[in-house]
Fold these 4 entries.
Entry 1:
Amino acid sequence: MGVGLRREWQGATVILGRITAGHSFARSSLFGNMLLERALQPGRDRLDVLTTLGWRRRLGPAHVGIEAVGEDLEGLWEAEEAEGGAKIFLGPSIQLAPSGHAWSASLCGGPILYATRTDRTSPAARPLEATGNGFTVRAAVAYSF
């Protein structure tokens, strides 16, 4: 669990609350994350709800799995959600993390679907940044010092 503040590029101050949970098994792991955001700016939602959920299984030096991202999920119960509606991403992922090395690389892709729609928009920064149903590919390279 954690709390914090974020100052966005557009000037909004956002209060953050995060809850994470997970469990590692012998060859796989399951982790989830829920981020609650409260923007202190007119025209934004009273509360934004973003979630991630992932499962992965080790296969040699790689992990394969599935990831899900839920963005602006308050749109499922608020008809006037300010960022255009609730969005859901679901797709397969692969991560290469060789033992004894400090680097890793990951690749994930899949559809982004709007679960609900509103005509409202705001300048809130969102990881999915979708304006309609579509497809995304996400890649990352990391190095641990």
Note: The mean pLDDT is 89.
Entry 2:
Amino acid sequence: MKVVFHQNFKKQYRKLRKNQQQKFDDQLSIFLENPFDPLLNNHPLQGKYEGFRSINVGGDLRAIYEMAEKDIAYFIAIDTHSKLYST
């Protein structure tokens, strides 16, 4: 599987603490092996993110992505649950 990062995702990633970046990198490795590994809690989203999916990064941190094609995951955002899902 190929992973593509939106510019917004890259900006948010750079703002994370180093340990949060490392946790995402670890979760991404799991995601690449098996996107539906139970450790990721991969689930579809509703509302403004309908059509996208979310994986748990650790603690309250979430990463949002969509499957652009069968084997291309397009990550668009990474932040805390409350910041991502507030209106």
Note: The radius of gyration is 12 Å.
Entry 3:
Amino acid sequence: MKAHYATFAHYNEWANRRLYDHAAKLSDAEYRADRGAFFKSMHGTLNHLLTADWVWMHRFTGEGPSPTRLDAIQHEKFADLRAAREAEDRRIIAFVDGLSEDKLAGSIRYRRVSTPEEFVQPLAPALAHFFNHQAHHRGQAHTILCSFGRRDLVLDLLGYQREVDTGRI
């Protein structure tokens, strides 16, 4: 099971790098424009992805930031947000690489951002949600890029796997 999550941790880093490469090509006005996504703009969506990753990684590790709002803007400047994203992706990979099968079979305890009650959840399904949540919002970011006519971004897991298989990664 660990190999499955390690693949997703590395895929996540690859997809985020590609997404940020494409987002960097937007003008500031495009980057901040409300395009009707759940977190409105590319800026809001990318900040949410980092915020949610911080929330979940704090739940998994007990370390790092634990934001209290899911719509928090962690960084106003794209370059600062990108640097934080890259650092978080390295942290995610290190966390997953450090997991044992026993740890994966264990549980975590946490409180939601929106409610005070405590939850206990098996770690493996929580990790599945974590990576699925990232893909969900990257899909929204991809739609924002498409709304500006930028349709050349590939974020599919199969694209990542083909690059791994051919040695391009």
Note: The CA atoms of residues 17 and 86 lie 8 Å apart.
Entry 4:
Amino acid sequence: MVKLKYQAMSANVFRFYRGTCHLFYEDLAAADTLPPSPVTWICGDLHIENFGSFKGDDRQEYFDLNDFDEALLAHAAWEIVRMLTSIFIAFDSLGLSEEEALKTVHLFLNSYSATLKNGKAISIDPRTADGIVHTFLTAVEKRKQKELLKKCTQGKKSNLTLLLDDSRHFKVDEPLKKDLENFINARMQQNKYASFEYKVQDCIFRLAGTGSVGVKRYLFLLKSETIKNKYLLLDMKQSLPSSLHPYIKIRQPQWGSEAERVIAIQERMQNVSPALLSAVVFKDEPYVLKQMQPTEDKINFELLKYRYNEIDKVINDMAVLSASAQLRSGGRQGSAITDELIAYGQSDNWHAEMVKYALQYTIKVKKDYKEFMKGYKEGLY
């Protein structure tokens, strides 16, 4: 799994950046050069690919922040400067100019500040989305569960199994598989889907993401015993301590588990959370359990290359959502209240320092990536 993670990180400098969140915050804590900012709940790994679509518990599709593995209480600037750096690095990976990246970074900062200044959290769904995000959400809304099943499974409708002929899917040893099946079967008797009498049909180890490659993650195929050929896909991902935690001096709440931390902060920051989201404990280890959905997706910036107007609209939406998540979760267990966030948004005298740090750190990431690739090609990893 470590080998596969390094392979993913070798793809380009942006994938390397995604897989080294811990290095970013280690360096940021040591630099300690950012201007003061309010204490807020942050997702902890904000970058352009950690926004996506999903179906909420209300069965409506949303576009929002969608990765909270690193989430905790921190200064707002830590979240935003990681996002700014991701824009510079992503544009560089796409072969776009630094001038365009700089323009987009300022757009993000201005939209983020304006949303804070307004003091009102905003959500984005197919009814409120604009531009490429509207097109994106409209398309994913039409996807059906059967399309996802076709992509992940094999066999006849009455007896499907999960695909192992996939580079991201791995077989689970039989004793562990049996324990996992029993665990999920018992869990399904305790939720709103209990009337469908779902039973686990198959289970595999699933590889996903970049930074989390190798973390225990299982994909379950469940079949209803009351409705013919009705299936459900569940994702169960191990929750580890946030990679930011060693570098944060702000006192954190005492959570029951790392999974409870992830879900509690996610539910505060998102307008509506994904279906079947819950914290579970399997073999004394915490996991986040949720439904795997045909609507869950991310915008492919490679396809938007040179379409600057559309990229700007997406980045503007991401800025609005970032500020909205902080507003929505304000005043909870030590996070800044709305008035403090409004005051922060009313000033732009901190913008220049944030851009300066992001630009300087982009140079360091590229240097680190070059050093990493030298070792990778020499077989050191």
Note: The chain has two domains: 2-141+299-377, 145-259+270-291.
